[in-house]
Amino acid sequence: IIAGAALASVGPIYIFGSSFAALFCLCAVLSFALRPVWAVKDLTKFSWLLVLPLLAAVSTLWSDAPERTLRAGLQLILTVGATIIVCRRLSARRAILVLGANFLAMCLMALPDIAASATSGEPLIGPFGSKNQMAATAHVLFALSLAIGFDRQQPVLARLLTPMSIILALVCVRLSQSAGAAIAIMMTLATFPPIVIYPKASFAIRC
Fold first, then answer.
1. Degrees (nearest 5) of the Cα angle 80, 139, 83?
2. Cβ within 8 Å of residue 140, ≥6 positions away
3. What confidence category does residue 203 fall into, taking pLDDT thresholds of 50, 70 and 90?
4. Mean pLDDT, the chain, whole residue set
5. How confident is the model at residue 200 (pLDDT cuts 50, 70, 90)?
6. Residue 176 CB-density burial (10 A; 0-12 exposed, 13-18 middle, 19+ buried)
7. Cα separations (Å) of 137 from 113, 144, 201?
8. How far apart are CA 168 and CA 178, in angstroms?
9. Less Cβ crowding at N or C end of the chain, within 10 Å?
10. pLDDT above 70: residue 100
11. Interatomic CA distance for residues 190 and 112, integer angstroms
12. Is residue 90 helix, strand or coil?
């Protein structure tokens, strides 16, 4: 429950700011406190994920704004560390489901602006105030919806919502007028089939 609440707070951070960031940090601290030994083992096992955040902190040495760079580097280290602790408390299937519901809710918040964007030709910015953030959110929803739809072990209701989620994501990407998100959608479509087929092919070969 704690890990699920932490992941559910990720998306709203971009809309509501520090309050949801504090919730994420609180959930990570609680997860660490409840199982400190396991948390330390997880951080050690996935310590390679901290290489880039550590490099970001070290870049303070040659930065033109060392205080700002150091603060951002430390925040990145804490964020990655907290993410490792939280994600290890959830199965991949449950994490995808929680994030899918999260990003679907955020794209649904853009519905009141879709008609105005379609008629005026202005980029869709939704609740984010940024077309790039809107497009990035819609692309993540698209990828998560594919993962949920092709997973037979996901709840039936979640899979039934998949077509609507995919259509909503594509509409939001189109109206946001983001070339980067459009390219990301095409890359997702190109890479997703092998991800789905490979495990099934490997299982058939082993059998």
1. 15
2. 99, 103
3. very low
4. 87
5. low
6. buried
7. 15, 11, 32
8. 15
9. C
10. yes
11. 31
12. coil
Q: What is the 3-state secondary structure (H, E, C) of 3-70?
A: HHHHHHCCCCHHHHCHHHHHHHHHHHHHHHHHCHHHHHHHHHHCHHHHHHHHHHHHHHHHCCCHHHHH
Residue 196 pLDDT greater than 80, yes or no: no
For the chain, helix, strand, coil in percent to 5 are 85, 0, 15
Contacts of 62 (CB under 8 A, 6+ apart): none
Structure tokens at 47: 């310590």
Residue 44 is predicted with a pLDDT of 92
**DSSP output for 110-130:** THHHHHHHHHH-PPP-GGGT-
Quote the pLDDT of residue 207.
46
Is 17 or 192 the better-scoring residue by pLDDT?
Answer: 192
Q: Which two tokens stand for residue 58?
A: 């070290």
Whole-model pTM? 0.81
Residues 6+ apart with CB under 8 A from 114: 124, 171, 172, 175
